[in-house]
Design brief:
The chain is mainly α. It has one domain. About 90% of the residues lie in helices and about 0% in strands. Helix 1 runs antiparallel to helix 2 and helix 1 runs antiparallel to helix 3. The longest helix is centred in the first third of the chain and has 42 residues.
């Protein structure tokens, strides 16, 4: 790597960190919501009349588990595109 390449990488670091932190915040919010759905759903299973609602909360939480790897992939593509556009 020559000094121009090193400078380019250093200049992109703050942008990369900002992008990565935004996706980490989204991931943390997603994880919190998943935990809420499963916790509330678990309490609903303690009452026979709420079992169906609890089951739906488990379905929502399970579907939301797909969001975490999706966010990770999107963040990797986003950072890659920013890096590629700055290298042109």
């Amino acid at each position: 790597m020559n000094s121009d390449s090193n400078q380019l990488v250093l200049n992109q670091a703050p942008k990369h960190i900002t992008i990565q932190r935004r996706y980490e915040v989204l991931g943390a919010i997603n994880d919190f919501l998943i935990a809420m759905w499963f916790l509330i759903g678990s309490f609903f299973f303690l009452t026979a009349s709420l079992v169906e609602s609890g089951t739906w909360l488990f379905v929502v939480g399970s579907a939301q588990l797909l969001i975490k790897p999706t966010l990770k992939l999107i963040s990797l593509v986003h950072v890659s595109r920013v890096y590629d556009s700055n290298n042109e």
